């Protein structure tokens, strides 16, 4: 049973969702944030390259963001959204279109608009010993963690031809770089020459294991025939957006080298007139500040559309889809 129509439901309380919620709360919009509680960077102890918050624990940023949003009247609810459906306008009663949000536990909520900020899942390469170091000794983003391991013995374990970019990038942070090239496919002579000229070691054999050190750190990368001592590893996960619950809306998608993502315009608006999306769920390369910016933009864009709808409703005119 529907008890209330929210102006906006924000799905996901990471950097993107909380920024959208803050913008909407400060716009006096009845806003509910629903969150499953698993932000992508929960494996890392500290965030970097986040202006004004460098070195802050990820959970601290989210707690502060939530407290700020609550100050502006935003409501929060724990849970997972299982599905989103359209509720078309009812011309008989004059009721405009809505979106219906189905939660685990069985409740269905109703909103005039939706901001999807559910992030992505990182599917890690299936290498023995790798997953336990994700976010500590196994990293993906040199802008987030490169400074902390600069000058150390670094490895890049490539997982696809896109790994070429990461392999070249990491040379900026160390002169002691080993690239495990099995994921790259056949290397051109030119690529080999360039790596050699920059003093980068290339190892073609597939990696079989990440070997832990005595403490919590990494000791080595192992192949079938050899072992290479390293201090940290960079690699790329397969990126899986948390957007399956939107299937029924059949939103337009963008096919990118990093995968298939819901298509959005610069304000985060999807092909559905009442649904916006922001952060990693639509922009896999977005870091925390980029996700925050996208969320703030989506929040303002939602409010602008609701303002127009408020005028149209008051004047008895059409209210869009
Ligand atoms: C190990 C690691 C370290 C990182 N370090 C940094 C760093 O130092 N600096 C930096 O700028 N970036 C860093 N990042 C990137 C950072 O994690 C992302 O940029 C950021 O989390 C994106 O925010 P978001 O709001 O889009 O998604 P998220 O932060 O992932 O938030 C999404 C939220 O939505 C919830 N959710 C998902 N599905 C549902 C559903 N169906 N119903 C309800 N809720 C749902 C999730 O539980 C989660 O709470 C790191 C990433 C990783 C993996």
Model description:
GO terms for molecular function: thioredoxin-disulfide reductase (NADPH) activity. The chain is an alpha/beta fold. The protein has two domains: 5-121 and 238-314, FAD/NAD(P)-binding domain (3-Layer(bba) Sandwich), CATH 3.50.50.60; 125-235, FAD/NAD(P)-binding domain (3-Layer(bba) Sandwich), CATH 3.50.50. The protein is 23% helix and 28% strand. It contains six helices and 19 strands. A hairpin with a 3-residue loop joins β13 (218-223) and β14. α1 (15-25) runs parallel beside α2 (58-71) and α1 packs parallel to α6. The longest helix has 27 residues, at 288-314. The protein is elongated and about 75 Å long. The two termini are 23 Å apart. The structure holds flavin-adenine dinucleotide. Flavin-adenine dinucleotide binds at residues 11-17, 34-41, 43-44, 47-50, 80-81, 117-119, 122, 135, 141, 144, 242, 245, 279-280, 286-289, 291.
List the helices and strands and how they pair.
Layout: E1 5-11, H1 15-25, E2 31-35, H2 58-71, E3 75-78, E4 81-87, E5 98-103, E6 108-116, E7 120-123, E8 138-139, H3 142-145, E9 154-157, H4 163-170, E10 177-180, H5 189-197, E11 201-203, E12 207-212, E13 218-223, E14 227-229, E15 232-235, E16 238-241, E17 253-256, E18 259-262, E19 275-277, H6 288-314
Parallel strand pairs: 1-2, 1-6, 2-3, 6-19, 8-15, 9-10, 9-15, 10-11
Antiparallel strand pairs: 4-5, 5-6, 7-16, 12-13, 13-14, 17-18
Helix pairs in contact: 1-2, 1-6
Protein name: NAD(P)/FAD-dependent oxidoreductase
Catalytic activity: [thioredoxin]-dithiol + NADP(+) = [thioredoxin]-disulfide + NADPH + H(+)
Keywords: Flavoprotein, Oxidoreductase
């Amino acid at each position: 049973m529907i008890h209330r129509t929210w102006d906006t439901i924000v799905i996901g309380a990471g950097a993107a969702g909380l920024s959208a919620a803050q913008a909407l709360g400060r716009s006096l919009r009845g806003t509910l944030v629903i969150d499953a509680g698993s932000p992508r960077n929960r494996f890392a102890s500290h965030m970097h390259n986040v202006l004004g918050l460098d070195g802050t624990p990820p959970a601290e940023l989210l707690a502060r963001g939530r407290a700020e949003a609550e100050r502006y009247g935003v409501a929060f609810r724990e849970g997972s959204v299982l599905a989103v459906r359209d509720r078309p306008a009812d011309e008989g009663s004059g009721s405009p279109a809505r979106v219906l949000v189905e939660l685990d536990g069985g409740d269905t909520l109703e909103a005039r608009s939706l901001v999807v900020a559910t992030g992505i899942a990182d599917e890690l390469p299936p290498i023995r010993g790798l997953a336990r170091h994700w976010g500590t000794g196994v990293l993906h983003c040199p802008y987030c963690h490169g400074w902390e391991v600069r000058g150390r013995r670094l490895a890049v374990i490539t997982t696809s031809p896109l790994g070429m970019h990461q392999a070249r990038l990491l040379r900026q942070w160390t002169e002691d770089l080993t690239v495990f090239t099995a994921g790259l496919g056949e290397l051109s002579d030119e690529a080999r020459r360039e790596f050699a000229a920059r003093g980068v070691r290339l190892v073609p054999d597939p990696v079989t294991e990440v070997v832990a050190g005595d403490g919590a750190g990494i000791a080595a990368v192992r192949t079938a025939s050899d072992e290479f001592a390293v201090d940290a590893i960079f690699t790329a996960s397969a990126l899986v957006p948390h957007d399956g619950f939107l299937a029924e809306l059949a939103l337009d998608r963008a096919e990118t080298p990093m995968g298939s993502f819901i298509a959005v315009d610069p304000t985060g608006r999807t092909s559905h007139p009442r649904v916006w999306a922001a952060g990693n769920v639509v922009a896999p390369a977005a870091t925390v500040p980029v996700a925050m910016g996208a969320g703030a933009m989506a929040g303002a864009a939602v409010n602008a559309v609701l303002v127009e709808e408020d005028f149209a409703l008051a004047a008895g005119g059409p209210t869009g889809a």
